[in-house]
Amino acid sequence: MKRQCLGLALFGITTLGFVGFASAQQVTGVLGSPSASTTIPGNQLPPPPPKFGGVITQDAKTSKPWWPPTVVPPKGAPNVLLIMTDDSGFGVPSTFGGVIPTPTLDRIAKNGLRYTQFHSTALCSPTRAALITGRNHHAVGFGQVSEFATGFPGYDSVIGTENATIGRILSDNGYATSWFGKNHNTPAFLYSAGGPFDQWPTGMGFQYFYGFMGGESDQWTPYLFRNTTPVFPWVGQKDYNLITDMADDAIRYMKELDAATPDKPFLVYYVPGATHSPHHPTKEWIDRVSAMKLFDQGWEKLREQIFANQKRLGVIPANTQLTPWPDSLPKWESLSAVQKKIVTRQADVFAAYTAYNDHEIGRVIQAVQDMGKLDNTLIIYINGDNGTSSEGSMMGTPNTMTVYNGVLELPELEYLRYYESWGSDATYPHMAVPWAWAFDTPFKWVKQVASHFGGTRQGMAISWPGHIDGVGGIRTQFHHVIDVVPTILEAAGIRAPDMVDGIKQKPIEGVSMAYTFKMANANAPSKRQTQYFEIFANRGIYKDGWYAATTPPEPPWLVGTKALPPVQDYKWELYNIAEDFSQANDLAAQRPDKLKELQAAFIAEANKNQVFPLDNSVLPRLLTPRPSGAAGRTTFTYRGVNAGIPVANAPALLNRDYTITAEITVPKEGAEGMIATMGGRFGGYGLYLQKGKPVFVYNLLNLKRTRFEGGVGGEDWLGRSLLPGKHTIVFDFKYDGPGLGKGGTGTLTVDGRVLSQQKMEHTIPFLMSIDESLDIGLDTRTPVDESYTLPFRFTGTVDKVTYTVKPEQLTAAHREEMRQALAVAHDTPAK
To answer: Locate the Sulfatase N-terminal domain: which residues (predicted)?
Structure first.
């Protein structure tokens, strides 16, 4: 007891007096010895340093050393494995009635509980920000994905220092914290080596990070980082895929942690890219799932099958209605035999990605069991960070970059060309919209639609051996991703801090779900009584069993290419979800009083959480200026090899005039290789020497490539290799603006003489690259065309590359009428 009191005095604390957490400081060992440890109150992070408890004289022989005790969590605090998949709706996994086998999620549900009224925000970054902070997404700056960030507090994509994450809280309380997979919560304008890194996982309290930056990544050649350093583990690997590599790295990390500090609890935040586009499972999984013939029946019959499964499993109430198939989507029988073949292949690949991902998650969980730690591990497995994605357009696409640039229709030949390779590294694919709607059964709508459960209802399972009554049961309380942090803190016996680094913290808005672990509370009323939703101005509000929602004026698969009404003119719907699980019966006309009450509740929550101003624009936000190393610059200069410059810090070449000037030295044996490139196989450009000859290729979203090189209407000598010595190669582009995605004239010159001049009918309007970087002197991920192989390192010397960019040729009228200006998006270039 004296030792405990001494520890309390040293840390300047007394006791902890809050319900559900450790009631007093716990000290082990002899204070001052190297093996002593202590818990902390947790109200202030980091805790004040303890006073030195030894003796210091002028002579070490008469002095007494003293070590500060190691901070540890309360005794019995569990390991935490927090898992969340991507872009997967309620009706996807077998655990919640889907036809796709997810045995790992089934296992967690069997050994724990299934939650059937758990919710996301309807979009990637916002859900993830809410999940790791316990606060609503607008309150922590993530009212949108970072790529669409705007200069308003609720939308700037910066998790402020007043919003400490679960990683930071647990880390300061003695946990080992790590993050594997998708990181969509670092502002897109802070991806560069220039930092700052406080908004990266390692700056937000996660001691180790292994994953990719941004909303999505090619899984064959991902935009991958270890902590803050880019890594390229696929180089030289024949069968590399990030889904497996990520599981391998998590298992390696946990084993090393166990060997070094076996008693130290861990938080592993495990968030793979599956099943966000691009859908990239291995061929073995595609073949395995295709043989099951899950989707030959078509999307309407699939929906009926999932609905029947859900009733059989009891994950929806017996009186649930299957919401009607919308008139805006084609019926299966309206498709030709070829179209059915194409879209069935897409669903097979999506299902293979789902099953493959669940299998690899199972390997991670099995590793925890093999280490003997499963009995004290809290596993939270959330299926999806939003509803299933409809961002693949009505017939799907072999290259999602086309949709991101407003190209919503492709020739049938384009699908057939990639039929066999769908899901491979030759594609960047997404499936057709109707599959997304079917995979959100029994609800209406899809990802991005925050107003309806098709966008926000996620299946979740939680297991924690010895702490959950009635394993295998179902819980129906209404909860939200902000409730995960308080649940973890209660399980660990750790309080939410009042101060972190001297900064007063915003209150955590979530409520713990731990009360549902007890059988006595299986049917208890939900402790979450109110929750608002908003994405792209689609709004929803839950309050005491009622739900009000705006009607989406246009579907998200049109990506804003159709004019939308003012946000204040949206129609509202009303549902009594205590009796109407699937939001099938709109009661707005019968209960205008209740609707008015909930609308007022939404305004109150919106004011409290930085939701205003509402903005329903989509693609136009991609062109919004944001802080970055490129902001305000018109000239960019690079010397020597310089790879991995992120999109936000690279020169913006869209919708404007620009000039690329490369000063190179060719050695006596000649030279070839990449001089400068942005993007790759699915859209971008490259300036390089091939067999000693200058070449510039513009890749219009893998639909058409324009190649500038010698011998095209030029003098004969211009088609020969460059002689040894110094040369200046220039590509100059004059844009046919103003407007979006217009064409222009490109001119390639060498040492002042015209090598090639050509007209391009169209250019990329919105987004040239997501997961590929600007590379100088080599090409790091995928080639801009197939005439060379990576890394295509330049064998001469890049003395200097200079980009000169002019202002965007978009008038105020163009910006105001941007949706109408997207007519080019429907004028698909021919091959």
So the answer is: 78-494
Tokens for 332?
């299966």
Residues 6 or more apart whose CB falls under 8 angstroms from that of 184 comprise 124, 125, 128, 145, 146, 214, 215
Contact present, 722 and 692 (Cβ < 8 Å): yes
Q: Could you give the CA distance from residue 645 to residue 533 in angstroms, rounded to a whole number? A: 35
In whole angstroms, what is the distance from residue 822 CA to residue 827 CA? 10
Q: What is the DSSP letter of 716?
A: G
Determine if residue 64 is left, alpha or beta; phi over 0 gives left, psi from -120 to 50 gives alpha, anything else beta.
beta
The residue type at 440: D
3-state class of 101 per DSSP? coil
**CA dihedral sign, ordered 143, 149, 155, 157:** positive
With bands split at pLDDT 50, 70 and 90, how would you rate the model's confidence at 25?
confident
* β-strand pairing of 538-543 with 530-535: antiparallel
Domains of the chain: 1-72 (no CATH), 79-606 (3.40.720.10), 628-826 (2.60.120.200)
CA–CA–CA angle 280, 103, 256 (5° rounding): 75
Q: Tens digits of per-residue pLDDT, 293-314?
A: 999 999 999 999 999 999 999 9
Task: Name the β-bridge partners of 535.
Answer: 538
Structure-token match 């180089």, residue found: 235
In DSSP notation, 520-542 reads GGTTPPPS--EEEEEETTEEEEE
Residue with tokens 């082990």: 28
- Tell me the DSSP string of 583-641: -----TTT-HHHHHHHHHHHHHHHHHTT-PSP----GGGGGS---STTTT-SEEEE-S-
Half-sphere exposure of 548 (CA within 13 A, CB side): 23
Take residue 415 and report the two structure tokens written for it: 């699908």
| pLDDT at res. 166 | 98
Cβ–Cβ < 8 Å for 285, 77 = no
DSSP for 408-467?
A: ----HHHHHHTTTTTTSTT-B-B--HHHHHHHTTTSS--TT-TTSHHHHEEEEEEE-TTT
Give me 201's structure tokens.
């996982």
Instruction: Give the Cα separation of 346 and 296 in Å (integer).
Output: 12
Q: How far is CA 330 from CA 119, 299, 339, 395, 574, in A?
A: 28, 10, 12, 10, 27
User: What are the residues whose beta carbons fall under 8 Å from the beta carbon of 490, sequence distance 6 or more?
Assistant: 20, 21, 512, 514
Q: Which amino acid is at 389?
A: S
Question: Where do the DSSP E strands lie in 484-529?
Answer: 499-500, 503-504
Instruction: Show Cβ contacts of residue 808 under 8 Å, excluding neighbours closer than 6 positions.
Output: 623, 652, 654, 655, 656, 737
150 burial (CB, 10 Å; 0-12 / 13-18 / 19+) is middle
CA angle 541, 156, 602 (to 5 degrees): 15
CA 657, chain centre distance (Å)? 32
Q: And the tokens for 360?
A: 């690899």
Collapsing DSSP states into helix, strand and coil, what is residue 767? Answer: coil
Amino acid at 112: G
Pair of tokens at residue 537: 């101005």
If one counts every other C-beta atom within 10 angstroms of the C-beta of residue 322, the result is: 18
| C-beta atoms surrounding 36 within 10 Å | 18
Q: For residue 680, which amino acid is it?
A: G
Whole-number pLDDT of residue 620? 74
Residue from 549, 561, 542, 623 nearest 588 by CA: 549
At 581, the amino acid letter reads: F
Q: What are 361-420's pLDDT values in tens digits?
A: 999 999 999 999 999 999 999 999 999 999 999 999 999 999 999 999 999 999 999 999
